[in-house]
Amino acid sequence: MSSKVSHITLQVEVDENNIPEKLAWTAPDGGIQNEATKALFLAVWDHKHLESLRVDLWTKDMPVDQMKEFFHQTLVSMANTYERATNDHLLAETMRDFCAYFGEKIKGEE
Hints:
By secondary structure, this protein is of the alpha+beta class. It has 2 helices and 5 strands, in the order βββββαα. It starts with 8 loop residues before the first strand and ends with a helix.
């Protein structure tokens, strides 16, 4: 049986100070082709050193209110992923409780 290789590509355009001005991503298997975005979080697991490695980027014109909502939605999705990956329903629900608290706090700032 042959395996398939799938690619996800990130494109980052930076200014003279290496600050992102434009971000785009491509995921052909998902039907995404050079789609513009304002922020991205990428985490990978280094199994040799047992640590998480991350790339967190956002464009200088990313509105703060959208960044707050991006964080909120990312936290919720992490809780859901945690539950699917570990089958730990109790801690996932605790994480979702925090997400609800976080969401209330950012809404209260507006």
